[in-house]
Amino acid sequence: MRVEFLARFVKSLRVTKVTNPVFLVRTEEKIPVPGKQFLLTGTEAKHARVMRIAPGQELDLVDGIGTRFVCCAKNWQQDCLEVTVLAQRKDAIQPHFTVVQALAKGGRDEQSVETSTEVGAHFFIPWQAERSIVRVSGEKASKLVKKWESVALSAMKQSRRAYLPGINAVLNSKSLFQRVRLACERGALVLVLDEATEIPLSFVLSSGLKNEVWLIVGPEGGISPNEMENFTAAGARPIRLGNTVLRSSTAATVALSAISYAMGVWEENQDS
């Protein structure tokens, strides 16, 4: 294991990869075409102005579902940036990570969305667990989803990914059990992060992973026995990350990092 790690580390030293700043474009309005000009407008153009994007500088336009357009800034037209589209490519997406994040106080759930997006999450399900201190419904639930969408967008651009994670509506435990059962039936690997179990994440990693992985993170008070029973009945597998107890805000990020490394997702040419 140590030899393999050192080999990967040495390989990483040989590769110098400078990434371009990322801006989201809505391709339902207009699609960038390689070899042609494209006009970046609205909020993303304002962001480019704040970042002081200058003529001749390279940048990437992404559609949020994996397509990346490598561009070169041409000139500013008042509040719009004209760019030349140089190339187009589709970023890899394997496996597909879904994070079920229990609502938490103090913005810890938003922190999880931010950092999990940066390390590779593709979809989030806000979960109002039995022991969640934060309770939302109606307009408050809608505002929470919009806030998570904003956090995910900023994190996507910060980490320069081509995928913008989707945010599901807030689910209660009963609805979540049904979604987990359907995911398991179609072959997804659903992992419940549980400090009480004796099965370590390393055991799951050594037995191989699938193309669709779910991570379920409970609230500060933990997942209730009733919820755990229903998750396992639906086909989910409880696992333990390590000997320390992580906050709700960091558990998913740590698990995603470990799984991504084990699967080689972070190797060269494995953008997600």
Could you walk me through the main structural features you see in this protein, from its secondary elements to its overall organization?
It is a single chain. With 272 residues, the chain is an alpha/beta fold. It has two domains: 18-90, Hypothetical PUA domain-like, domain 1 (Ribosomal Protein L25, Chain P), CATH 2.40.240; 96-262, Alpha/beta knot (3-Layer(aba) Sandwich). 36% of the residues lie in helices and 24% in strands. The protein has eight helices and twelve strands. Strands 6, 7, 8, 9, 10, 11 and 12 form a seven-stranded parallel β-sheet that branches. Strand 4 (67-77) and strand 5 (80-90) form a beta hairpin. It is elongated, with a radius of gyration of 20 Å. The two termini are 25 Å apart.
CATH-scheme architecture of the largest domain:
3-Layer(aba) Sandwich
Overall geometry comes to elongated
How large, in whole angstroms, is the Cα Rg?
20 Å
Order of helices and strands: HEEHEEEEHEHEEHEHEHEH
In the predicted model, the low-confidence regions spanning at least 5 consecutive residues are: 12-16
Cα(first) to Cα(last) distance is 25 Å
Count of the domains: 2
- CATH fold descriptor of the largest domain: Alpha/beta knot
Proportion of helical residues = 25-40%
Roughly what fraction of the amino acids lie in strands?
Answer: 15-25%
